[in-house]
Amino acid sequence: MARYILSLSLGIDTGGTFTDAVLFDPDRGVVAAAKRLTTKHDLALGIGAAIDAVLEQHPAEIAFVGLSTTLATNAVVEGQGNPACLILIGYPEAALDRAGLREALGGDPVVTVAGGHRPSGEEQAPLDLDAVRAAVLRHAPAVTAFAVAGYFAVRNPAHEQAVRDLVDDLTGKPVTCGHELTSGLDAPRRALTALLNARLIPLTASLIRAVRGRLDARGIAAPLMVVKGDGSLIADRFALARPVETVLSGPAASVVGARWLTGREDCFVSDIGGTTTDIAILKDGRPLLNREGAQVGGWRTMVEAVEIRTFGLGGDSEVRIEAGLGLAVGPRRSVPLSLLVHQHPEMLAALRRQAERTEGLSLDGRFALRLRALDTDTLSPPERRIWQALADGPQPLETVLTSHLLDRPLERLVARGLVILSGFTPTDAAHVLGLHSGWSREAALLGAVLWARRPAEPGWTPPADAEAFARSVLERLTADSALALVEAALARDGVAEPAREARGLLPRRAVAGDAPAPALLRPALALGLPLVGIGASAGTYYPEIARRLGTESVVPEHAGVTNAIGAVASGVLQTVTITITAPEEGRFRVHAPGGIRTFGSLAEAAAHAEAEARGRAESLAREAGGQEVAVTVTRADRVVSMAGGLDLFVESTVTATAAGRPRIG
User: Fold this and answer.
1) What angle, 0 to 180 degrees and rounded to 10, lies between the N-to-C axes of helices 466-492 and 441-452?
2) Cα–Cα distance for residue pair 23/344, rounded to 1 Å
3) CA distance 596 to 101
4) 599: pLDDT strictly greater than 80
5) From residue 617, how far is each of 194, 333, 349, 630, 631 by CA, in Å?
6) Can you tell me the distance from the alpha carbon of 603 to that of 586, in angstroms, rounded to the nearest whole number?
7) Cβ atoms of 207 and 43 closer than 8 Å
8) Cα dihedral angle (542, 546, 551, 557), rounded to 10 degrees?
9) Which of 339, 367, 343 has the alpha carbon at shortest distance from 431?
10) 287 Cβ neighbours under 8 A, 6+ residues apart
11) Angle subtended by helix axes 441-452 and 347-356, to nearest 10
12) What does the DSSP 8-state code read for residue 88?
């Protein structure tokens, strides 16, 4: 039996490619660190391997476990998630065309029923519970969770609560209410946030079960907490109910960890992972927050989080040809060929066979494999045919897609996170060029050979050989990463359309290294802050990216496990906001989570709102796993000055912030 020599914190980060673990002491820093492959078909395997690796290096008693993850972020970016039914109460039909809500729904069911409230908190129509009952019974067999969004529910949550209770009684499936996630008034975005939360519940539950199971197997009974998107911590049971709050968990943890590792007060923090690049800014030692809501994968949520711009750009990004523009990487993740063959050596023979053919095929160098187990009753016949073809492990796409009619069924399986494709990635390019050596270089080289012999397409000319192709892939990743940083800087500077402006200021050739002679114009920009690069491959890319953008490059020791460090270097923070309105002269209405109350004076209403906000924030902080909780309350009044020196009260916002340290031991 191992002899425990010290009580430490265990930080775990589960990403799209790697699961990291660190043993951390606030005084000594990182005591041990390890990286193991994330095993998406069974998350517990990769998590257990990472935990075992650090405990073998340094046996210790664990007093606290912190978890960060990019799984929720990646699922949103890649358009994945379990099917959910969205119930809209009193929403106008046009609401579906705002905030990208209709697009986000995809094929998931949406039901609109009568009900909802006015801005004053009074009913605009009675709630039609019969319609809700019929819709729930109709859609429950095909979905894993429900999302409920009522019109002006943040001013009166009664209808959302009634629907939540009915869904729970009828199905027992998870239900997400919009008012529980945000107090913001943007109805379509609130519905979008509730929908994303509902879709993420099974994914988050699977992750937390995997972590807790591995901890239990090792006799570790320490509290388990999860990093939120704002960098603070919540208890595991809290995260199960509000998984959307863990969107940007991994990036937020990386910012906290980068601050701890570098001591930098003001800098860009760019975290390159397997699937995404996440860019944030540290100012005066604290991450900047996005009060308007985190934007992930094109969706603007209402989750307050670290201000991070997430790009589908990473070491495992799919390499493809973009029509008319040429070589592109991302946003979809692909299993690197080098990793595929490392895990499934039998696939090397297929790559060799394809490379030996006299003519290349469009599906050369591409494979498919299952990600997890599934009850095939939920699949269509074409989807089931593909699923069965992958029963014995990965297969070349040329043997899976025996008909063009199977293209769309395969895409649906990929979108649902059931199947993943494998092909050439920047990670493979790094193997070809000798920058990485952990997996199969031969597989990467064969993949590059297959790409190099593809016919020319508009915007792209095949390179001279495999190494030239690999260099072009890494160049594309480097240039696009620089472009992403310029976009993030412009967004922070308040530019309305930062992506368009970035492309205008910094066209592709402006970041493509040294301009080829005889270029007479060589535009250049400089970032206004140092660039801290983190992630397993940061040392490969970020010194060059920083050089091109005219700034200092900082790649700290332990850059590859920064997220896991951030998972145990933070605290608990919960915020509650309550609004006071004036429905008529001399009456002041408090819109609290527990319901509405009307008072005869602003002083009485404010006192009630402050007490409600304080109590709710402290309760949430303790529920989230905090101890030694301290609460601060602020109030902001909106008053309009009228003609004649009169002041007109519009509304008041009362905000309570509860902060505490995580419960340890």
Assistant:
1) 90
2) 31
3) 29
4) yes
5) 21, 39, 59, 10, 7
6) 12
7) yes
8) 10
9) 339
10) 230, 231, 252, 255, 256, 259, 269, 280, 281, 306, 307
11) 30
12) E
Distance CA 530, CA 595 (A): 48
The tokens describing 654, both together, are 């009362």
Residue range 284-339, pLDDT digits in tens:
888 888 777 766 666 677 777 888 888 889 999 999 998 878 899 988 889 999 99
Looking from the CA of 637 toward its CB, the CA atoms found within 13 Å total 12
pLDDT in tens, 8-58: 899 999 877 788 999 988 778 888 999 998 887 788 888 999 999 999 998
Per the document, the length of the chain is 665
The token pair that represents 586 in the structure block: 């001399």
Query: What's the rounded Cα separation, in Å, for the pair 641 and 388?
Result: 70
Structure tokens, 106: 């995809």
Q: Report the distance separating Cα 53 and Cα 36, nearest Å.
A: 9
Name residue, tokens 């008012």: 179
Cβ–Cβ under 8 Å, residues 447 and 337? yes
Q: In what order do the strands lie in the sheet with 84-89?
A: 110-113, 84-89, 145-150, 175-177
What type of residue is 349? Answer: A
Amino acid at 56: E
Percent of the chain with pLDDT over 90: 40
